Amino acid sequence: MNHKLNEGAVSFRQKDFDKHKSLFGDLSSSQKPHTLFIGCSDSRLVPSLITSTIPGELFIIRSVANIIPPYKKGVNFPAISSAIEYAVLALEVENIIVCGHSNCGGCSALYKSEEEMKNLPHINLWLELSRPVKNRVTQMLPKATLAERDWMTEQKNVVQQITHLLTYPYVLERYNNNKINIMGWYYIIETGEIYNYDVEKGYFELING
Ligand SMILES: [Zn+2]
């Protein structure tokens, strides 16, 4: 596997880097990304690919199940909150995309028992932040099939994370003053479809049909 990665590094330098040499030169001393992209760590979700963007455009945070911890002064999951702080306050991004996806292992793990999660204690702790989503879906769809349950959980989870994002006072202030645009995306791996959450209508709409 190492061999494959090393070959990839050689190929990048010879082909893609060479093709975009002047872009990398321009980016050498500063960045001005327009968007903070917060997505699940899943390998099948590739932010630059699904947004057709190039280096320098997206500031990216990845986390299991694209969870954003609610704002708290002091130390509270600082890996995520420090990156949000930097993107919004220092880089002054214009957009924030929270992106969930189909077949999300993190979202389906919400339904696993303590016993099933006993070897994954950090994931279990992290998923606590999305527990309200599980409770809401279970209440709304008590007789749902597994597919319906997962689909609903993945979408509601995006909405929940937008709620968490708006607990950051500087995000809320910029959102209320129309200085920052917040989008909730749901990406379907096998079709390439992206649905955006319409806050006023309260549901997801296909944006690339
Ligand atoms: Zn995922």
Please give a structural write-up.
The chain has 209 residues and is of the alpha/beta class. It has two domains: 1-30; 32-206, Beta-carbonic Anhydrase, Chain A. It is 44% helix and 17% strand. The chain has helices spanning 2-19, 21-26, 47-51, 78-90, 105-109, 121-127, 131-140, 146-165, 169-176, and strands at residues 35-40, 58-63, 95-101, 181-187, 194-198, 203-206. It has a six-stranded mixed sheet with strand order 2-1-3-4-5-6, covered by helices on one side. Helix 7 (131-140) crosses helix 8 (146-165). The longest helix has 20 residues, at 146-165. The two termini are 37 Å apart. Bound molecules: zinc ion (ZN). Zinc ion is lined by residues 40, 42, 65, 101, 104-106.
- Trace the largest sheet across and list its strands: 2-1-3-4-5-6
CATH homologous superfamily name of the largest domain?
A: Carbonic anhydrase
Q: Which CATH architecture of the largest domain would you pick?
A: 3-Layer(aba) Sandwich
How many β-strand stretches?
A: 6
Order of helices and strands: HHEHEHEHHHHHEEE
Continuous helix count = 9
Briefly, what CATH class of the largest domain? Alpha Beta
Number of domains: 2
Q: Which molecules other than protein and nucleic acid are bound?
A: zinc ion
Structural class of the helix and strand makeup?
Answer: alpha/beta
Q: Residue ranges: pLDDT <50 for 5 or more in a row?
A: none
Reported by name, the CATH topology of the largest domain is Beta-carbonic Anhydrase, Chain A
